[in-house]
Amino acid sequence: MTASRPKSESAFAQAKQVMPGGVNSPVRAFRAVGGSPFFADHGEGPYLYDIDGNRYIDYLLSWGPLIWGHAHPEIVRAVTEAAARGTSFGVPTELETEMAKQVIDLVPSMDVVRMVNSGTEATMSAIRLARAYTGRRYLVKFAGCYHGHADALLVKAGSGVATLGLPDSPGVPQETAQATLTLPYNDEAALRALFAARGEEIAAVIVEPVAGNMGCVPPVPGFLEALREVTRAAGALLIFDEVMTGFRVGLGGAQGRFGIDPDLTTLGKVIGAGLPVGAYGGKRDIMAAVAPEGPVYQAGTLSGNPLAMAGGLTSLRMLAEAAANGLYERLEAYGQRLADAFVAAGKKRGVPVSAHAIGGMFGLFFHGGPIRSADDTSQADKALYAKFFHALLDAGVSLAPSQLEAGFLSAVHTDDDIARTEEAITQAFDRL
Ligand code: PMP
């Protein structure tokens, strides 16, 4: 039984008349879990309120950015003060330099950074730069990792190692897709085999250092180290896509947490505190190739937007302070409590389940585990997740409307929110 949300249902019917599938981003349409999406009215702290007046403890958090929850007073103040001074200038502001300094200060491998408007722009630009810098054609990505919707990145793995890509999406030219090679995540042997065969043709490897787009799947020990080693030996660049993990699995992102030094890093989500922003950056000599310093063109009318910079900078400063007081350990402990509640409830009911928690991310799978790659997560039970998702929604808990997405925690979730969610998880298994 799914709770009725008449105003949201009516709003969705109207939206479908004027937007593809009724949404501005496909995952919002609830296709994987069925039913009709709820429409947001407003948010406050860890809670999201829909237009029917229901309240949800929010673990979607706008797909990750809201590490300070909804409408945090200090972020709202920074953004509104910035807006009152002007929403965009098209000439430099000192705020952009302050933001760049803050990002560079926190992300260990970055010497220089360029702001863009989304994660997609960040990865697309980093790849162009990597190809230009190395003079090589091929990009390597991992099946199940998502890096935005640029043509080169809409390619999934074929079976086996180093399969030439086929477009995952119509509209991607075959020659573009063929320049993207895919490998299974967490498979060091496949990685080494590809580099042994074709290492000198590879411009870059792009990876989610903790995968969050096949559900949350951490790297197995040694995988990220192997990536660093083989790319360096082959003269290929290593791009850490930390759009999701940045400032989320730790203050220094996954690279800080695992002690890996990528050549380029892409950022998004948390960096903008919910405003549209992304960034890419890395080693000074590589970034020197970006226009106007170098020949690799990349630009943006709204890049470095003052509202996004003000909100993001406030958020990052607050994070730096909170991290010193154990924020990331607390988020991970909360995530682990949700993971443990899920696994315990599954075990009690004889339902195969597994779960991961790392920093402010977690993943819940209807699969007995271990979960290491997209092959594993693709075998998780989708129908059970759909029922579980709706049971939680009816209990006032909002998770991602797909098992192949991560869950997120914020600094403003309370012990009480977590306890109520543990209870909701346990009770949801009674309805499966
Ligand atoms: N990279 C990763 C790791 C992501 O999770 C996402 C978005 N979920 C992107 C890139 C694309 O970011 P955006 O949606 O802002 O374009």
UniProtKB/TrEMBL annotation:
Entry keyword annotation includes Isomerase: yes
Residue numbers bearing the N6-(pyridoxal phosphate)lysine modification: 269
Annotated pathway: Porphyrin-containing compound metabolism; protoporphyrin-IX biosynthesis; 5-aminolevulinate from L-glutamyl-tRNA(Glu): step 2/2
Coiled-coil positions: none
Cofactor(s), names only, from the UniProt record: pyridoxal 5'-phosphate
Record EC number: 5.4.3.8
Alphabetical UniProt keywords: Cytoplasm, Isomerase, Porphyrin biosynthesis, Pyridoxal phosphate
CDD domains reported in the protein's UniProt record: OAT_like
Enzyme class: isomerase
The keyword Transcription regulation belongs to this UniProt entry's keyword annotation: no
Subcellular location: Cytoplasm
Quaternary state and interactors: Homodimer.
HAMAP family the UniProt entry points to: HemL_aminotrans_3 (MF_00375)
Designated name of the protein: Glutamate-1-semialdehyde 2,1-aminomutase
UniProt organism field: Alicyclobacillus cycloheptanicus
